[in-house]
Amino acid sequence: MRVAEILAAGEAMERALALLEGGDVVAIPTETVYGLAADATNGVGVARIFEVKGRPRFNPLIAHVADLAMAARLALFDPLSKRLAQTFWPGPLTLVLPQRPGNGIHPLVTAGLDTIALRMPKGFGGELIARLGRPLAAPSANSSGRISATTAEAVAADLGSRIRLVVDGGATSVGLESTIVKIEGGKLRLLRPGGIAAEEIEAAAGVKLSRGAAGIEAPGMLASHYAPGAAVRVNAAKVAKGEALLAFGPRRAEGWQGAAALRNLSETGDLREAAANLFAHMQDLDRSGAKTIAVEPIPFDGLGEAINDRLSRAAAPRDKIDAGP
Ligand code: TXA
Ligand code: MG
Where does ATP bind (predicted)? Predict the structure, then answer.
């Protein structure tokens, strides 16, 4: 049974604030994906996030801030982190930094780590944090292991029976989660490719990103994640009869006429458009009832790295799924 109210962003502020003040969660639009937000200093609210998502407790959450002053109260910035924050915030970049001791963040948010992931979102989220005066912990607004939601309707379909309010800001503009970068001793490590291309970050930082992960640091890094109900087959040169096809660019894979359903991420081969369409198109094809979604090859440059990352996780064997407690 759906209990969530869906309110347009323009009229949702007071209701959202009241729920957050009361230790409840609210689904909010950001420029990347919808977030399931709670006051990051309120343990009851943060615990609700894990309960609603069915998320394993060891996964730390991103703390979202309204401005650089709030960020500086939570974490220790070196000159490189400051430069990246000034260049890309507000926007789809998350910085993992040393925590400032006594910052008031509930330990459930950081899963007890001595680092904290920070991001400054655009739009309604940023305004909400400024009004609340405290950071918001917000993972993507989807059940653990499922596709991230890029519309209010997708949030309501997944979590609508478990939350009170979905703030509707329309379809998100970026469509992929933020890029996560860890900064240690002047070095940058890419923990998760996302809405800002690695090349852009390297250009602003003046240093190369390293990609070698030491163990699982961001659960987006678990093999199976972002999984639709159907099986996913990437890099498909041919489409088998009855498969759904997720296309990219002007040319179609062989046998496309026999596809059970078809969506094109971008007719013109534009990777930004493809990123924005990715999750909604996967959900559409999943709803078509096809057992398998074949995906045409996507180039790896720019946002293609993050798109391929999400697709390969969706295609990974499901027994590795990060599906909660
Ligand atoms: O675009 C986004 O980033 C969206 C919107 C809502 O802001 N949020 C999002 O959150 O994708 P979530 O929780 O689905 O992914 C956050 C990732 C997780 O993979 C988590 O492990 C990682 O950030 N993370 C959080 N804190 C960390 C830390 N201290 N060190 C390393 N990774 C961390
Ligand atoms: Mg997520």
Answer: 55, 59, 115, 140, 148, 192, 226
What residues pair up with 71 in beta bridges, in sequence order?
none
17-76 pLDDT, tens digit per residue, is: 999 999 999 999 999 999 999 999 998 899 899 889 987 666 899 999 999 999 999 999
- The interaxial angle of helices 304-315 and 271-287, nearest 10 deg, is 20
Which residues are 246's β-sheet partners?
Answer: 263, 295
Q: Near ion ligand 2, which residues have CB within 5 Å?
A: 140
Residue 98: phi and psi, rounded to 5, are: -65, 140
pLDDT tens-digit profile of 220-243?
A: 555 566 678 899 999 999 999 999
Sign of the alpha-carbon dihedral angle for 290, 296, 302, 306? positive
**Superfamily for domain range 5-221:** DHBP synthase (3.90.870.10)
The rounded distance, in Å, linking the Cα atoms of 37 and 220 is: 18
Residue with tokens 């064997």: 317
Query: What is the length of the chain?
Result: 325
**Dihedral pair phi/psi, residue 107, rounded to 5°:** -60, -20
Q: Average of pLDDT values for 128-144?
A: 96
Q: What is the pLDDT of residues 177-205, one digit of tens each?
A: 999 999 988 899 999 999 999 999 999 99
Of 61, 97, 309, the one to substitute when testing ligand 1's pocket (max ligand atoms within 8 A of C-beta) is 61
Q: What is the CA radius of gyration of the chain?
A: 19
Q: How far apart are CA 60 and CA 83, in angstroms?
A: 24
Among the bound ligands, the one closest to the CA of 150: 1
Q: Which residues contact 200 (CB under 8 A, 6 or more apart)?
A: none
Domain boundaries, given as residue ranges, for the chain: 5-221, 231-320
Band (pLDDT 50/70/90 cuts) for residue 317 is: confident
C-alpha angle 139-270-226 in degrees, rounded to nearest 5: 30
Q: What distance in Å separates the CA atoms of residue 207 and residue 230, rounded to the nearest whole number?
A: 40
Q: Which residues are annotated as a binding site?
A: 32, 55, 59, 64, 115, 119, 138, 140, 148, 178, 192, 226
